[in-house]
């Protein structure tokens, strides 16, 4: 039995509140268990230098945690003068994941920035961020359609993410913080609505693993992601 | 008539949700009109070097805005490598305001850090931060009493803050962003529960002002702060 | 009796040496007691991005202390990689104070930068900087008139500043360092030649204060600023 | 046919020169085709703060590219003031990979730092760095055994890495730069001598992929890594 | 004839005002022509980590220019986040020069920091800084003797510096800014009171030079430094 | 007898491998005893802002040491956020030395950047860098001639550098690290093929020195540089 009484293949409760912010073109507050991430989409009529004149747009992401998202206060990265390696790695992951399902040419020379700010953290913040950011992006792109800037949404399909891991020798879906910190293998999967892989990241801490473990983790994640996509569709009104 | 149909001496609706975060010793989400600030208190059993061995504690604050708190996205300060002058000025103000009503000796060699993160901004974020942080602080100190760390709360009295300004020649209470950006004089007042001044900051943009204007702004602020203190007491259960 | 034998309403000796630097368009070395600040004005034919094409100019300030301005050596901020919050707060104050008395449209698309470098510090460095910078500015603008760049000086009136405080329960004018470090309330006032307020900043350290204290501090400051304006006029030849 | 005339399942020529540096406890210059990485191991009798007193050691890595490792000069990261996100991500990967095959308790309270500096880059620099660093580590640990600091090498088994990708719809082993920049899917695998996974990282650029693609890429990589382990054993004299 | 009507072997007027600052243990304001440098010595009862427990002291220097020391305003280095290469090079030169004439063992475990701040610049600021700093150092060490901290001054002899150069094919002593910017060869010499070399730095810009030029520049400098040492002795009361 | 059995006027073995990198326009790996520096030249069709439109080119250099170039690991400067003063000083020296022998007008509006990365360090890294960089520069300029970008090489003559010092009272040529760390006087000389001085830098550590010492060090260096120029000519095929 897991610490929060879940089955090995059971996700935590998922809630996605669309339009949480009055200020942003698209936004969503996603809760996965006690993990809460506020995702906001900003559309700007400009692109990075390497895309100017290409007719193509760009999607990028930034990630941060409020200091008291965690049980112990985490010092702000601004006071160290730079984002940590972990932060940079996560925001690169979110950006890549979203770009994999966007038709950048259909977006036109626009940049969409997804700000993912963790309000409360209990494991799986990066995967919740991918899942919530996709909803904020879908809403913002819907606005572009509504105002006639693009004929149809450049979002090809939805993308969502979850974590799986091997804890005490057993594969578990959607690790909470306590499980994550004891896991022998930690894996994050990003998949599309249609069940294709966008990102596969598995890391063995001290215990390398074999093909069978890889297969069972992928299988657990696939089921979880299907659940997340349902929540996304409902939130985004798709 | 003001842009949001208020009277000159009328504050925006105030709401304070205590205990918003499961992770922090004390927390409060304060809304003043569309301005929303999440305040979290962290108690640590340590003090800055200049207080070690003094028997006295410390109260400090950090302030930040999420990028899409504003209508136009504001770039994260972490990417510039340092907090801006505005941010440093605000967090110094919050810290000083709270220290003015705390018995630092009764606190003992502990530091309380108040993290004030603006979720949505429509003017008056620094004054909302002072008001909300005082509630988070009161709750965290209540926890110290409950667990026997201190015999009674080191908080002498509550402190709250509001803004006033001269707009189109008329003194107005609690400026929203649109009013603030047109104001000839902009003033922030921090006062105690008992009506004493903690901070007085008035700035003339292009139009210096006389004693009468100073007096009428102080008078407007005093009434507004009384309203805020009521909301604080209710939220903190005092 | 005060530590340097002054009366409560007595300022320290004030001296302003105009044209101290051969290199700058305008400069002044101001001494207020042992506090000495070198102020230099630089006029550049450019404006910040937000003013380009507006027909309006800009006035800004930078502030710094030499390491041995103080009794204990203060490490240089360049070695920490950034100006401190205190420095940023002070240079924002100086810039705002001067902009309040300048006709930025009459200045045209030019920027005047006031460099205020503290050579020796004994309290009141920010107020001495405002007072000295106004003289350097007046001289530099006089040069613009002389060379026909503007028909008349865009300086509407002079601006000067002093500190007041409550020490051992008594309001005192123009605090020296020793008094400042013991003050219950510390106030800086910036006023125009005609006696209007430009900035009012009062801070209670541990002891909040009432309306009567505010009034008596304002009254002391007003008299001191009148004295400073006389010294400014003499130095600037107005 | 590939650009360099290889078969899809053919690796580039691999050469590992052990002991390239006279200065380091262990070192290796690895060449994989035109990619050359100099790996140096440093053993220090200290551990990071979080391990002090734990009896356990630590293995970490740093990664950098010389500016002219690339066809176009790449500016030095030191001049931007910080390592890029890509650099941090790679050095975290190298460190994790090596820690997965080390008995940190048997290492004792020592830190081994692996410096991986890319002399010439033609794709696959991070996987070459993992492979070369493992040889430098094995040599340095051999020195510890030789000087009696530890009874036997704390290295449980070797670890090596290669890249695979889908280019023009075809799975290819060991991508050179030109192939990597055209790949639809880019995957890095880190595996042990015994064929277990340590890290699995697959990323779809624009084209999500299915289970079959994942399986064929893993299979290609497994064969390549077996080749690399042979070269490692020869170089390290195991 | 030189721009300021000097002979080739003629120095600019030199003035050294000892004790310019009331705040520092030793200080001197040195003027060499229009170049003015304020030098302040700070004595601290501590040494850098590499000297702790060695019984030896340390002498170090910091150098900076006020923004309007120059005809065109020079931006402050603090706003770039770091001292420039030029600044670091100069402060290393000043520190080395002074350490060459100090008995660091006789100083005991103390650090003397020499702050050299250029108030006005017209060429030769680094050599004026060496010359002025030596006076500030001598005064501060005299204070140590006076208060019984050391039996006699650890200063073995005085050190002073000047520049020479080849301008339009002619060797000139003590270059002003205008000459320095046109010089084919630029040389700085630091010598002791007894005429020994401490630092010799000569740089050819575009025109390499021969032994005869080197000899004539050294000879000019030697005469100039003798003059500076006289001014130092008078200022330091030696 | 010296530690490595050389005569006082004997250089260490010198080897220069031209074209070490396949990626760069010009490159050379220079070994002077155990010191090895990899030098790479990059030609770019742009110049710094201060030269735009001048018809003149620029030559600049960057210098760095790999962490395990040294017997004790040296932390990477990128992790401190900035190049050290020593690094900046060295790269300024290399750039100046090369510019002294280049006809910048004949180069046209191009920048050549010389990257000098120390692979292994045993004293004299800066002088080896100057010597090796000159070969890389000569090769890169030869490419410009070959491709018709310039009619003939803008390199007027070769430039090379070595160190000399006074160790235990005796002048020695080409100091290794162990000698350098014991030297009373440390001198670096940069000279042209035709025996003219480009840079002369001598520093006394604790022991100021006289004219005779200066003369004997210059004489030793002159002989050593003649040897280096021979090796350069052979490597560059001149």
Q: How would you portray this structure in words?
A:
The structure is a homohexamer of 238-residue chains. Chain A is built from 5 helices and 9 strands. Chain A has 238 residues and is an alpha+beta fold. In chain A, the strands form 2 sheets. In chain A, strands 1-2-3-5-4 form a 5-stranded mixed sheet. In chain A, strands 7-6-8-9 form a 4-stranded antiparallel sheet, sandwiched between helices. In chain A, a hairpin with a 2-residue loop joins strand 6 (159-167) and strand 7 (170-173). In chain A, helix 1 (85-99) packs across helix 3 (125-146) and helix 3 (125-146) packs parallel to helix 5 (211-236). Chain A starts with 13 loop residues before the first strand and ends with a helix. Chain A binds chain D through residues 81-85, 88-89, 91-92, 96, 99-101, 187, 191-192, 194-211, 214, 218, and chain D through 81-85, 88-89, 91-92, 96, 99-101, 187, 191-192, 194-211, 214, 218.
């Amino acid at each position: 039995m897991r610490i929060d009484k879940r089955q090995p293949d059971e996700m935590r409760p998922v809630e996605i509140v669309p339009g949480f912010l009055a200020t942003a073109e698209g936004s969503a507050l996603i809760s996965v268990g006690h993990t809460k991430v506020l995702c906001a989409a900003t559309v700007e009529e400009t692109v990075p230098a390497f895309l100017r004149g290409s007719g193509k747009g760009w999607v990028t992401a930034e990630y941060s945690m409020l200091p008291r998202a965690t049980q112990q206060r985490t010092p702000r990265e601004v006071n160290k003068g730079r984002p940590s390696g972990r932060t940079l790695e996560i925001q690169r992951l979110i950006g890549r994941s979203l770009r994999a399902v966007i038709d950048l040419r259909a977006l036109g020379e626009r940049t969409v920035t997804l700000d993912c700010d963790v309000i409360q953290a209990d494991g799986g913040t990066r995967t919740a961020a991918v899942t919530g950011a996709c909803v904020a992006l879908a809403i913002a792109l819907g606005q572009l359609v509504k105002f006639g800037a693009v004929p149809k949404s450049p979002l090809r399909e939805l993308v969502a993410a979850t974590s799986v891991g091997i804890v005490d020798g057993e594969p578990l879906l959607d690790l909470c913080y306590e499980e994550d910190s004891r896991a022998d293998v930690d894996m994050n999967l990003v998949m599309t609505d249609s069940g294709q892989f966008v990102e596969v990241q598995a890391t063995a801490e001290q215990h390398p693993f074999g093909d069978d473990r890889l297969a069972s983790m992928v299988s657990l994640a696939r089921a979880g992601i299907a659940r997340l996509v349902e929540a996304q569709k409902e939130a985004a009104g798709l």
